[in-house]
Automatic annotation (TrEMBL):
It is an enzyme of class 2 (transferase). Its EC number is 2.1.1.37. Residues 1-46, 122-144, 229-263 are annotated as: Disordered. Residues 275-601 form the SAM-dependent MTase DRM-type domain. InterPro entries: C5-Methyltransferase, C5_MeTfrase, SAM-dependent_MTases_sf, SAM_MeTfrase_DRM. This is DNA (cytosine-5-)-methyltransferase. Gene3D superfamilies: Vaccinia Virus protein VP39. Pfam families: DNA_methylase. Its main location: nucleus. It is found in: Nucleus. The keyword DNA-binding applies. GO terms for biological process: methylation.
Length: 603
């Protein structure tokens, strides 16, 4: 069967485990014509020929800054913005102090590059792809190569800083201050100095208080802690050769080794080696349980998950083998793995099978047959406009550098061709199709919420394949305890399999998700739906009352929120101990009590 190939390659490079908010991409810093340039400098080297008051320079000298550093900084940015001047001085100060302990950085490399359009630097609502609105595309191949090289260097620096646990906001600001061509460690120190400045100003002190307190802090414990953290991060980044550096796609050495191809224990039409597994009688259902989380979890997390769920081996599946989009997930369950059957009719397996109307505009150099992981957010209008400008200004076919840039963005954001030289994100109803939901399943909530809910959902065809064994076992229907239900992917899978749900106790904190599930349930189901907003309110006593009321549960299904496990969520990828993923232990607690109440094994 065609398509049973390695899961590595492009889909690995851009596949994102979207249950965390997708990280924004970044583009080159532009020039700011509002910042001082050579034409605004007087003959004496000062901005607009205005010499700053001697008292101002002396004031910063008294604070502990060298006079040459103060004059240099004022010449670069003026003295009208005290906050900006303070931040630049702190940056230079941090770099000089770090040089003294053996790091040979040149502060001359950390200047304030000028930026073309202030509107492109809205870091509070940073979209990463929106920052190149002022750059005009050129049809010259060498110009595009420079443009792409600049983009690549900036993206690499930002991703490196993010993997060193700085925020993307901090990384972007540092590159704007120092430029994208400086050493990564210069950027680290610049961020550190900026953090000190922000800490000082966050105290709402007067100028004199800032002078007296903040710089003493900078010269003391705060600075020592900051520099030590910076050195640790640099050491971690430097540790060994390129092979030891963190990968930029979440698939680094910290991830659990995954099978390749990622086809689980078996898939329809797959002719690979057969897999058998033996579960003890104590581990078999009912109650059956089914737990999902992202495949690319940090090192040791899947071992920990398995250890808490009867030491059952995870089943890793990439949904691209069942539909037209990748979705790498791991499943731990005690369901039988023999006699599974897929949903019929089979879902479309390629992009053109799913969306044949896009073929008209699809360029020959875009060789994608599958989409990547469906994310919780989509590309911005500015990004798609930038791609269109690049293509319009190029030859046909465009230069390799332009093709690479366009393909990288198309793969990352799942862009499709909707016109000549025109790409666009998937619409929510198209994501519903790819994920196996009925059309308009999420309609009725805002478009942004629809993307978020769909990006965090089950892939219905994959889940249905695993649950299909329940059809023969429960001809009269099932009683389901659904934990972290999202928009009801498990329930939709059971419905598509023709399995009647006699009762579903659903735990889901998202109001919009509950509204989506309730709307679908009222239109399609006759059983009882009991909704619980917060898993913390599902106490052991309450679980016991449900077991007594319904005679137990046949299936406990769910997947704890995996924001802290997902590869794309680079800011808070702290595993099961993270704020969201720690809810996994509530899944274990509740499953444990259901087993106990029904006379089965406790974990």
């Amino acid at each position: 069967m065609a398509g049973w190939t390695s899961d590595s390659g492009d889909s690995d490079k851009f596949e994102c485990d979207s249950d965390g908010e997708a990280g924004p991409s970044s583009a080159p810093a532009m020039r700011n014509f509002d910042a001082p340039g050579p034409s605004t400098l007087g003959s004496n080297g000062w901005i607009n020929g205005e010499v700053p008051p001697t008292s101002l320079i002396e004031r910063y000298v008294v604070m502990g800054f060298p006079k040459e550093m103060v004059t240099k900084s004022i010449k670069e940015i003026g003295h009208g913005d005290a906050d900006a001047l303070l931040e630049l001085l702190l940056t230079y100060k941090a770099l000089d102090d770090d040089d003294a302990v053996g790091n040979n950085h040149s502060t001359s490399g950390c200047i304030l590059p000028v930026v073309e359009n202030d509107d492109d630097l809205d870091f509070e609502n940073w979209d990463g792809d929106d920052d190149a609105g002022g750059r005009e595309s050129s049809s010259d191949d060498s110009g595009y190569e420079d443009f792409m090289r600049e983009m690549s260097e900036r993206d690499e620096k930002i991703n490196s800083l993010v993997n060193m646990f700085f925020s993307e906001d901090e990384a972007n600001r540092a590159i704007i201050r120092c430029g994208a061509d400086v050493d990564i460690f210069v950027l680290v120190d610049s961020i550190g100095a900026s953090q000190v400045a922000e800490d000082c100003h966050s105290r709402n002190l007067s100028d004199n208080q800032v002078t007296d307190r903040c710089f003493n802090s900078f010269g003391g414990r705060k600075k020592a802690i900051l520099m030590e953290e910076s050195r640790k991060k640099r050491k971690r980044y430097r540790g060994g050769g390129q092979g030891n550096r963190p990968s930029l796609d979440g698939s680094d050495e910290e991830s659990t080794p995954l099978p390749n191809p990622m086809v689980g224990f078996n898939l329809p039409g797959y002719r690979g080696p057969s897999v058998t597994r033996m579960l003890s009688k104590l581990d078999t259902g009912p109650p059956f349980f089914y737990y999902e989380n992202v495949a690319r979890a940090p090192k040791g997390e899947w071992a920990k998950i398995s250890r808490n769920l009867f030491d059952i081996q995870p089943e890793f599946v990439d949904s691209l083998h069942l539909c037209a989009a990748a979705r790498k997930r791991g499943y731990i369950h005690n369901l039988p793995i023999e006699n599974r059957s897929p949903l019929l009719p089979l879902p479309p397996k390629t992009i053109f099978e799913a969306f044949p109307h896009y073929k008209k505009w699809w360029p020959s150099w875009d060789t994608r047959t599958h989409l990547n992981c469906l994310q919780t957010c989509v590309a911005s209008a500015k990004l798609t406009e930038r791609i269109q400008r690049a293509l319009v200004s190029s030859s046909n076919p465009p230069p390799k550098s332009v093709q690479k840039y366009v393909m990288d963005e198309c793969k990352k954001w799942n862009l499709v061709w909707v016109g000549k030289n025109k790409v666009a994100p998937l619409e929510p109803h198209e994501m519903e199709l790819l994920l196996g939901f009925p059309k308009d399943h999420t309609r009725g909530v805002g478009k942004t919420q629809r993307y978020k809910s769909l990006g965090n959902s089950f892939q219905v065809d994959t889940v249905a394949y695993h649950l299909s064994v329940l059809r023969r076992m429960f001809p009269n229907g099932v009683r389901v305890l659904s934990l972290f239900t999202s928009i009801g992917g498990g329930e939709v899978a059971l419905h598509k399999l023709g399995i009647h749900m006699r009762v579903v106790v659903s735990v889901e904190i998202g109001e919009a998700n509950r509204r989506i599930l309730r709307g679908w349930w009222d239109q399609t189901q006759t059983g009882a739906l009991i909704e619980i907003p917060d898993v913390k309110s599902l106490t052991d006593e309450r679980v016991a009352s449900f077991v007594s009321r319904f005679g137990g549960f046949d299936l406990v299904i769910g997947g704890s929120p995996c924001n802290n496990l997902a590869g794309s969520n680079r800011h808070h990828r702290d595993g099961l101990e993270g704020k969201h993923s720690a809810l996994f232990y509530d899944y274990v607690r509740i499953l444990n009590f259901v087993n106990s109440a029904m006379g089965g094994r406790r974990l």
